[in-house]
């Protein structure tokens, strides 16, 4: 399964490069990532929890950075095992270039899944990936949802960083 898109990030290439190499920024940018430890040179150990359709799995795996050209791009590769849910293996090639208003970040992602995840089919997996990181080409209809419109117009250093959530009301409360 392959995905590709590009984003303009309101920061100079040096700032974006530093963010890509920061494990805490990477952790926040990986949906469902509980922990990410390591370094760019040695690689990272990651624990990620994902729910795709009816399947929820906790993956443990290894992430490596390669083909690193400072402030121009790199390749992020990883693989993880999620027990009975299956496995995921993939890579993302990131390319950066200066652009008006910041840095143009282009990416091409190639993902392979197996086990119960593969049984769901690529349509559900692609839809889930677009829901987690809406792209300019991922809208399910001609009119994006309110959340997608807000995500597209909200300035952030990194496109998939989570937003603060309002606390849910408990049943019976009148707040």
Structure description:
The protein is 23% helix and 43% strand. It has five helices and seven strands, in the order βααββββββααα. Strands 1-7-6-5-4-3-2 form a seven-stranded antiparallel β-sheet. The longest helix is centred in the C-terminal third of the chain and has 11 residues, at 122-132.
Features of this protein?
alpha+beta, seven-stranded antiparallel sheet, 7 strands, 23% helix, 43% strand
Oligomer: single chain
Tell me the β content. Answer: 35-45%
Individual helix count: 5
Q: Largest sheet, described in full?
A: 7 strands, antiparallel
Secondary-structure map with pairings?
Blueprint lengths: L1 E8 L3 H9 L1 H7 L3 E7 L3 E10 L2 E15 L3 E9 L5 E13 L2 E13 L1 H5 L1 H11 L13 H8 L22
Antiparallel strand pairs: 1-7, 2-3, 3-4, 4-5, 5-6, 6-7
Short description:
This protein is an alpha+beta fold and 175 residues long. Helix content is 23%, strand content 43%.
